[in-house]
Amino acid sequence: MKYKNIVVLTGAGISAESGLKTFRDNDGLWENHRVEDVATPQAFAANPELVYAFYNARRQQLLNGNVSPNAAHHALVALEKACEGQFLLVTQNVDNLHQQAGSQNMVAMHGELLKARCTHSQQIMDMHSTFDGQDRCHCCQPAKPLRPHIVWFGEMPLFMEQIVDAIWHADLFISIGTSGNVYPAAGFVNEAIQAGAHTVELNLESSPSQFAEKHQGRATVLVPDYVSAILAGKSQN
Ligand code: APR
């Protein structure tokens, strides 16, 4: 393969064909609330029940076991295996599908749906059930309430140092299924360009960001095709 160090950024679009709604489907509304008004520390402080209900609906989809990784998630596992340098998959998704597919070197920069966090100590724990509002941690005495282990609007994304370092060393940056609306992820492509990487967008629609290569279509088609092309040494650049 022509590329040595690869960073892949994914967003909700890669999981759409696994049956999970993207964030900006339904005009970004959930039961008439703007997602931006539910996924915030302020909303959790003012109305925790509403916030638990929002995430419970999403957790339930995963807990039902009806959602599984699709061809795009699997193609990224093949790309990681073929990469001879450094590979980092950065996902904005909280759905666990990359992990289920078998991606190894990856970070979930916006947290994970099936984890919870102590509101006091910030300790992170697996949580394979829905929130009932009474859930308490095991780390504090007295036990403290748990919150979703999700990076809300206004909070700092996770793993930023590792991500920025990987982009700085990348010669290929691929963005998949993200609308490019939410920073800092939306700005990663500019850092990749500054680092001298070749930049590629694979998305249903063209985002406002500049990429050297842009392909529009469904992730389950575009991603396996693109991965096959670069593994065969046939990418455009
Ligand atoms: N294949 C490829 N792309 C798709 C598909 C598909 N089958 N279906 C939808 N898309 C594209 C849409 O065209 C859109 O550009 O995926 C993108 C999804 O965009 P968003 O819903 O904005 O999701 P995302 O970019 O991941 O959101 C970023 O915003 O709400 C916050 O923290 C949340 O991580 C999320 C962040």
Helix and strand topology:
Elements (H helix, E strand, L loop, with lengths): L5 E5 L18 E2 L2 E2 H4 L2 H6 L1 H16 L7 H12 L4 E5 L5 H5 L4 E3 L2 E8 L5 E3 L19 E5 L9 H9 L3 E5 L11 H7 L3 E6 L9 E4 L2 H13 L6
Parallel strand pairs: 1-4, 1-9, 4-5, 9-10, 10-11
Antiparallel strand pairs: 2-3, 6-7, 6-8
The structure holds adenosine-5-diphosphoribose.
Adenosine-5-diphosphoribose (APR) binds next to loops.
Characterization of this structure:
This protein is α/β, with parallel strands linked by helices and 237 residues long. The protein folds into two domains: 6-20 and 70-110 and 157-231, Rossmann fold (3-Layer(aba) Sandwich); 24-66 and 119-150, 2-Layer Sandwich (SIR2/SIRT2 'Small Domain'), CATH 3.30.1600.10. The chain is built from eight helices and eleven strands. It has helices spanning 35-38, 41-46, 48-63, 71-82, 97-101, 160-168, 188-194, 219-231, and strands spanning 6-10, 29-30, 33-34, 87-91, 106-108, 111-118, 124-126, 146-150, 172-176, 198-203, 213-216. The strands form three sheets. A six-stranded parallel sheet has the order 5-4-1-9-10-11, sandwiched between helices. Strands 7-6-8 form a three-stranded antiparallel sheet, covered by helices on one side. Strands 2-3 form a two-stranded antiparallel sheet. The relative contact order is 0.19. Bound molecules: adenosine-5-diphosphoribose (APR). Adenosine-5-diphosphoribose (APR) is lined by residues 11-13, 16-17, 22-24, 35, 92, 110, 177-179, 181-182, 203-205, 218-219.
